[in-house]
Each structure stands twice: as C-alpha cells, then as structure tokens.
Amino acid sequence: SMPLHLYDSCYKNDLATGEAHRIPGCIYPWGMDPKWYSTKNELAFANSFKMKLSVIVGVLQMGLGVALKGFNSFYWKKGYDIWCEFLPQMLFLSGFFGYMVIMIYIKWAIDWTDQNQKGPSIITLLTYIGLNGGAIGEVPLYGDGSLQKFVNVFVLCITVITVPWMLLPKPILLKKEFDAKYSQQSIELQPTKTEERLNKYAPFMNEDEAEEQEKDIKEFSILDPPTPKFDFGEIMIHQIIETIEFVLGTISNTASYLRLWALSLAHAELSKVFFEYSLLIPLKADSPNPIGIFVGFVCLAGVTFGVLMCMDSLECFLHTLRLHWVEFQSKFYHATGKKFIPFSHAQVLKEIDKVENESQIIQL
Predict the structure, then answer these.
(1) Which residues share a beta bridge with 21?
(2) Could you tell me which residues are beta bridge partners of residue 11?
(3) pTM of the model
(4) CA 105 to CA 123: how far, in whole Å?
(5) Which of 145, 56, 63, 153 lies closest to 108 in space, CA to CA?
(6) What pLDDT, in 10s, does the model give residues 154-200?
(7) Cβ–Cβ < 8 Å for 59, 103
(8) Residue 199 Cα distances to 87, 206, 222, angstroms
C-alpha cells in the first residue's frame, strides 16, 4: 500500500510545469514506480493495473481447476469426461479468457506514449470479438490489424464450437454404449440358495407341499434381477445444466475475481489515509516534534494492526475462501466420493465383533 523507494524512479519532476516526465529508455526494475503515489491520477492508474491483475489470477486459477478435472478423469479412466468435457472446457477457457490475458500482457508491453494514441480497451476488444465477428475496433492492439483479425475470428470459432461439444457427444455416446451392452445380452437366471434348497426335497413332496414350495420361492428368492434402464432425457438435462453452468459460470466467475481488486483498493486507500492523518502531519511540521512523531507512530501502528491486520485480513480470508470454494472447486469437485471417517480403535473393535457374530450365525 505504501511505496518503497527501492530503486530510482523513472520519472523526473519538471518544476516549471509541475509535472513529472518519464526518462527515455528507463524501465522500473520491479513493481510499481513509487512516483505514482504522488500523482493526481494515481488512483485511476492503480485501479486499471489491479483490475487486470485480479482477472489474470482468476483465469489461471480456474484453468488449474479444469486441469484437475482432467487429472481426475484420467485417474478414474473416464474417457468420455476427458474428450467430451475436459478438452472443450479447457479450450473454451483458454481460448477466450486466455486470449484476454495475452492481450493484457501485449498492451502492457507496448509503450503507448510513442504511439501518439491511447491503447485500445481490453473490454472493448472482447466485445468486438463476441458481437462483431472478431472485429479489431478503431486501434489495433498489435501489428497492422490483419493478424489480430485472423486470431480474433479463430478464437471466436473455437469458443462457439466448444459449446455443442460439451453438450451433445457425451449423452449420445453413453446411450450407444448402453444399447450395445444390453440390447443383445441375455441375462442368465441363476437359482438362488433358497431355490436350490427347496428343489432338493421336491421329489419327496406332495401337491400341497409343492405349492408351498413355489410360494416360498417367490417370497424368499429373486429370480429376475432388475433390468438396467437408461434415461436419456435425464442424462441430457443434466448435461445441459452442466454446459450452461460452465459457460455462464466462467464469465461470472471471472468477474467475481474482481473482488481481489476491490480488496486491494480498500487496503491501499485505508493505509494511505491512516498514514497521512497520523504520522505524516508531524513529519511535515515546520519544526521537529519528537513527541508528535511518537504519538503519530503509535496511532498508525495501532490502527494498522486493528483495522488492516485484523479486520481487513479476516475480510480477505472470507473472500478468498469463497473464491476457492465456488469459482475454483466448482470446476472439478462433485462431492461424489466416500465420506471421511476418522480412525477410531473403538469403532474398529466394534466392526470386528460384528463380523465375528455374523460368521457364527451363518455357521449355525
């Protein structure tokens, strides 16, 4: 929040005009030039930088979530999930939003002060890709615009193709696999233990006993195992929901990562206000005032610990917890595994006793 002058600034003050001019060829080695702290447009510049940085972090984390889904599908040998969900989802995310991240870095890498024009808005470029068929807008981001036009159209085509790819193939392939498995397969009915035991004494039974035997067989044995059913409509509805949730969720989740920018903005402005109204006042006094500096430092340290280190840290924890649970884990976590049961010696002994008692009953 407060800049540290670790390196020399790349801006030089012009006392005549009251402005700071950039030193030609100078690049600040790391981080943000501390000169921005004393400028009038510091807030606008920092907002633009932090907004883009939060989106980059969000796209990278969501990409990691989709990659974990692919690893899970590979581990459980779910081929349909790999080809019909993981690949199109990764192409959709990296194609549209990954291209957005690349455009951000390209815009950062270009010195627009030498271009005699302002750099194009990234949001405007994305809008042109989605609504104007890949148009580049008034100012091209790189080159003369021909290459950018081709890349925009290619990214748009990939994005559009991945939506039906996520929607249709998996239910159709599951239906074909089910039909191939159960259409010609005859289920051989094996007699149960109850039936075998009753048939053993069938030659020694009269008519009444035979009727009683058939009644017992129907009551205690399962002759016809349930035939598996494939509900194509239910599978299709589930796939539609999954596709809509991923496509729309990726857009809303990317915007949700802007909360990182908001938290950083609030933290920076609070830190700036605390410093200016506590320690900076005695430091800027005409005559040195050690007591005032000490009191100002105590006030700054106290409010920094109470507000920034305690309250603001708790707020950041809650927001990041939500980002991990909703935006990140929704890409791969389905809660279909086994419930975690802590190890317990008493529970193990109870299960052993239960198994021994059941084995004794079976022997009897």
Answers:
(1) 12
(2) 22
(3) 0.77
(4) 14
(5) 56
(6) 999 999 999 999 999 999 999 998 888 876 554 444 445 455 555 55
(7) no
(8) 57, 13, 15
